[in-house]
Each structure stands twice: as C-alpha cells, then as structure tokens.
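Continuing the series of single-chain predictions for the mutant panel. This is the parent chain; the variants come on the following pages.
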Amino acid sequence: MHRFAKSLCVALVSAGLLAACNDDDVKSTATPPSSSTALSFRMDTGGQINAFFRQDQVAAHLLVRSSTKPRLLVVFPAGNSGTGVWFDDTAQPVNWNLDTPPSALSAPDPHGRPLYGIGADVSVDTDTLTIRQGLLSNVRFLRDFNGNATIPQQIVTAPAVQGSTVQWQRDRVDGAPGYALRITLRDGGTIASAAGGKLVLRAPAGSRTLKLHVDALTGEMPLAPITHADLFAPSVNPDPVSQNVLEFLSFHDKLLAGSWQYDTYFGRDTLISVRMLMPVLQPAAIEAGLSSVLSRLSDDGKVAHEEGIGEFALIDNQKNGRSNDASPTYDYKMIDSDYLLAPIAAAWLIDDPRGQARAAEYLAQRGSDGRTNGSRLVVNLLHVATTAQPFAQQPSVANLIRLRPGEIVGNWRDSTDGLGGGVYPYDVNAVLVPAALRAANAFLARGLLDPYLDAGQRATLANTAAEAATWEQQAPPLFQVSVPAAQAAADVAAYAPSAGVPAGAAPTAPLTFYALSLDAQGNPIPVMNSDGGFALLFGTPPDDELQRIVADVTRPFPTGLVTDVGMLIANPAYASQALWPKFTSSAYHGTVIWSWQQAMWVAGLDRQLARQDLSAATRSLLSQARQTVWQVISNGRDMRTSEMWTWSYVNGQYQADAFGTRSADATEANAAQLWSTTYLAIRDPQLRAGKYWWQASQSTPDTQPQRATAVASR
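Parent structure:
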C-alpha cells in the first residue's frame, strides 16, 4: 500500500474500523496540487531535528530528539494542537534521521470531516524503542506532559495496533474534529505489547535501524498565512533561516511566539518583535501583530499575555462551569505588556511614515465585535494613565507598579525565580511606564484619537507628558546599585568558582548598575541584568544614567554580562549567595543568553547614538558597547534563531550549548522563536546600508525618525 494511501486509515482508527484499511478500499490522501509554494525547511539544534512545513491549510512542525530520552512530536499552529510520542529512556543515546521531509496530507475523520497534516519518513539507529506514551491534544497539555506535570485524563487515548502500524485517533473533547497520529514500521519489523500498556517497536531481524513512517493530522481550524510577499519589505536582511522562521510563525490573525512550545499568541513577544522588525516588515504584518494585541485586550485595557484555544480552552472553560465552550481564554497576569502597547503602536502610527499614512484608516477599522482599533487603544491608554498617576503625584516605592496580587511573575523574566523574589520590576517602572505615558501624550497631541475620546478621557490623558517626566526622573534612582571596588572584587572572587569560570581581572573602581527588581520593602535585588536594553530602546536617558546602564554591564563575565558566546541576561555575583543557585546557567532566566535581548541592545544603542545631546565620552562608551555586543552576537550566530541558549566553560573557553540538552536545564528552548528573528532588521553596524538600525536604505537620513513618543522634557 502506498504510504499516502495508507494514511487515510487515520480516519478509521477505532477498533471496529481499523480492519477496513486495506489496499482495496483506500484511496490516496496526498493533498491535491496547490497553487501556492510550500514553505519547507529544516533546522537542527541541540541534537534535535526540526522540520517545518506550511502550505494552504497545512502548517506543521515535526521534531525528533536524539538523546537517551527520545521523543517524536508534530505540532500545528491550527488550534495550537499537537501529537507526540514519548519513548522510554535508552541505555545509549540514539540518533534520528529525517529520510524524507514532511509533505502535506488531508483525510476525513470517521464522521467525514477534514483533517490536515503531514507525512514524513524518519529512522533511528537502534533496533528497539519502547513507546511510553502517545498524546494528542493542545500543545499546552503536551508541554505539561513533557515537563512531568499532570494532564487531564480525558485527553488520553489508547493506541490501536494492526500489523506494523500503531495509531492514536480521537475527536476533540467536545466532539469536534480532533487529532490523529499513525506510526508505521517501514521495511518490516514488529510491534509488541509490553508491561504497563507500553508498546515495543522492533526492527527486522539483523537490522540495527528502526525505519518509521509518520502521519500526523489535526482537525482544528487552519490559520490564514501571511505570504512572503506580504511579510517582508525589500530591505530585509537576506538571511534565509530567519526569514523561513518568521514566515512559518506569521498569520493574519496573529504572530506565533515560537515553536514547538508556543505556537500561538503571546502579547509581549508580539509587541517586542513588531517593534524591532518594523523597518523590514510590510504594513500587513505590522498591523496583524498590533491588531492581535488590540483584539485581545481586557475590558479595562490590560494586554493579554497568552491565549488558551482549542482543546485547552474547552477544558479550562469546563473547570469554570462552562461546558462545551471553546471560547478562547486569556491570561492577564503580566504587567509589562500593558505598557508596551502604546509606545509600539506610536512607533508605527506616529513615527513611521508608512504607518502615519495609514493611521486614521487603521484606527477606524472594526473588529469582529464591532469595536474600532482606536477605541480599544484608548482603553489601554486610560489604564496606563490611571495606574501611573499615584507615583506621578507622590513618587515612592509603594506607588510603583507592582506584580499583580498573588503572582510571582509579571514581566518577561516570567519563571519562578526570574525576578529574584522582587515584586517591582526595573523594566516596567524605570522604562516602560514613562514610555507608555509619552506615547499617550503623542497620540493626544496628534489628534489621532479625537474620534474615540470623550471629555473625561481627554482629561485623564492631559498630563501624561508631565507624569512621564516624573517617572523618568524619580523611578530609576530607586533601582540604583553601587558596589565599592573592594567589595566587588571580593564578590566576584567568591562567585566565580560556583559558576565554573575564572574570576578574571578584579574591579578597580566601584561598580554601578540597576537592580533586577525591588523587594516588597523597596530593597534592590542586586542581580546585574540586561534590562537596561529597554531604556536604550524606549527611553532618552541622560548621560549619567546611560553610563550606569552600559559601562559595567558590558564588562566580561563574571564581573559583567559578556561572554564569548553571548551577553548573559543575569549575573548574581553581587547578590546574596542564597540567590546564586537560582541564577545558574541551567535556569531559564539565569546566566544564559536570550537572543532578542542582544538584538534589543544593538537597536537601543543605535537609538542613543543618533541623539545629538550626549557627551563625547558617553558616545564613545555607547559605540564601544555596540561593537562588543555585536561581536558576541556574531560568535553565536548559529544559535540566534533559537529562543535562548546556555554555555559551558571547557579548556579555558566558552562554548554555546542548546538549552534543554543537559539534565540540569530547567526546560528546553524553542528552535524557532519569533523575537529571535529580529536580526532580519538588526545587522552588523559595519555592514549596513544605512548608519542606524531603522534605516531601510542609504537614501534614508541619518537622524532618527521624528520620535513624538520620546519628546525630552529634561
């Protein structure tokens, strides 16, 4: 039987129908010829093969992990759904191979409803693998299972075996079209039952290689892709890997945060990516990102962090007394995104000439609920102004923006220990709140929101420029950390052995930087960090503040943050030793490298270097910092489309390691991450056509675009 024909049996997986799958009654399920070009590419990282495919109704990511913990997954942007097989640990690492790349499939389910997916051939260099668990559901549940968390029992389905084929298939929990996964042994071999309900795949006698054909399909509603032509401006960096990743993640309804684990909307990821990619994106892509955020705002103007859709939404709603309700659920626990929307909307609708020309029309567009983009944006600006007002009237720690009640996360460092136990994040309070206030004032001054404002709302926004100035002047000093030279030298000498690196040259002058956060009493958490990049990208700090943001942070680790394989996001050397284990190279927000943070630094340093009001000494510092950061970006170029990575120090050298490949790593990194594609806009300063990051060609002026959002009031 042809492998595509055979895959139709996915539609006949129930025990009673399985036997009907034979050559006499099955027709080919390969999808008919398409008028659109398929996007098909492969990325290998950290011992994992990642194969991506997108065409028409099909978008899928196949990944197989080579290690002592083998795993096979196929995930779909449609419904953030996925299928996966986890195998028992092996005595020795096994290595996978992709024998044929994914190709599109479609098939009806047992009720005649269409399922869409892919088929592919893979092989692995072992004669035996034992299937521990097969799972079909929403990626959030697959993510939970992968992290050893409990999953709902109603999503678990038993496999059906016939001959050399094992398959899982079920409807969605509400009876809607569901999911199917079928694995067939190629070239013979057997499937046998084992204790505990497990299945053992065995290669043919005498063979040391298991050869498998995989078909995976989903019945969730396909998303409408943004085509290559509608995605990229001509000035985009000719980096095919990053272009492929961004194209795979871009749909008209939303930009996906990353694959495999985040194949859906995330507000923060969308906003930051849109901002840094803006110079090389077409208007359709920029506005798809902004609209996805605006359409998911809460009634009081908060930005949704993550959406729950498909089967996750069904089960989440059921827990809250709403059975068979597939309405999306939204998570509003993050505070930083609330203050990112306004400055990024202003960067497009006010600062960018292309956006200026479209602003009135875009703001007047209505969503499916009949509300305009302009009215939605007003609600967010009112939230910004209202929450910022107490500190503007009485600058004190108690009036800063705090994590929401009961939450331990609230900004991009959203792991348990990401803020070191702090409750007032630096980036939110020192940078994003004043940036949002300035953006609100810019919208008010331009009159763009006049059709959507009443007199009371206008009054609420009237003082946002003055309030921004208060925040800019009064908030950063609350986060300032100064470490005397002798203490800094002692701290580094004590910390270095725990990090497994040499201490290097001892600091000979006091160190200054901004704390990661403040604790509930207002005490700085003195973890050196990379979040000054937000001030560089969104603010107009004075000389002394820029010195504090840049000078010591860009020193070599463990004094600063810079290693040969990237700029770390945290360094706990100057904090209590009790915090050191929380910020290791195995911690998600520890001494690790996040690709987009480095890109933000280069983009932000460009913004500051375009200013005309800085001293020569500060300009020299910024230029050197940009060169330093770009050098380590170049060193790690093979990793930069991934979400983040870690490192090891071997034989006197740093080497980059994929995060999640070591047993101590807290989780794993995505191979394809939205905000890690920002290098499509941000290039080597020495190789650009223009002088600064936002310039699309040599014909653009050296000065910054007119930044209504950053009018200095100093």
